[in-house]
Amino acid sequence: MTTETAGAALLDALHAALTRYVVLPTPEAADAVVLWIAASHAQPAWAHAPRLVIRGPEKRCGKSRLLDVVEATCHDPFITVNSSPAAVYRSISDDPPTMLVDEADTIFGPKAEGNEDLRGLLNAGHQRNRPAKRYDAATNTVESIPTFAMAALAGIGAMPDTIEDRAVVIRMRRRAPGEQAAPYRHRRDRPALRRLAEHLARWLRNDLHILENAEPAMPVEDGPPTPGNPSSP
Which string of b and e fits 145-164 if b means at least 16 CB within 10 Å? Predict the structure, then answer.
């Protein structure tokens, strides 16, 4: 089996696992989440860390369940609800964890109070070389703390433009009649998903140098057919 074939099989397995436990709003949304999870395993190769925003108009739309599956399959998950900013900042390294924030509306929404440091980290951490600076009075020095890390945020309602402009946005909804999802049990189901995550990591981490230098394909602009152009009809 070639590397490409093995990679495609892993992505197919991830897609099957995701859609087993979660009803996504569209097939394109399922594909986007699969690719975001895979990208988390190759994070050292990227210049940017796109956010994954999982938002619903109300409770019981599957956003927390989707975050559970993301947590089980992404790179080194760090899930937080009401963690102190200092604990979050200290968890980010040169090979950072994937930050997972449930109830993100408590950080950005009308109920948000005293979360300026965490909001700053989530805004700045989209791009490399945006460290936070802190003064250490004990040593009389300025400390540089990295902020770069991929992050998934689940909450009710929209996130700020500074987040959603840099995010894959998944707009969850309640399941329609006839739509089914298997129940997810953390102790029973997570180990198999973590094994899948390990396979993804081995596949992608072997090619970090290739991914780091890769350039996305530019879209072909439509135009009038040119005589002699192989792409002309």
Answer: ebbbbbbbbbbbebbeeebe
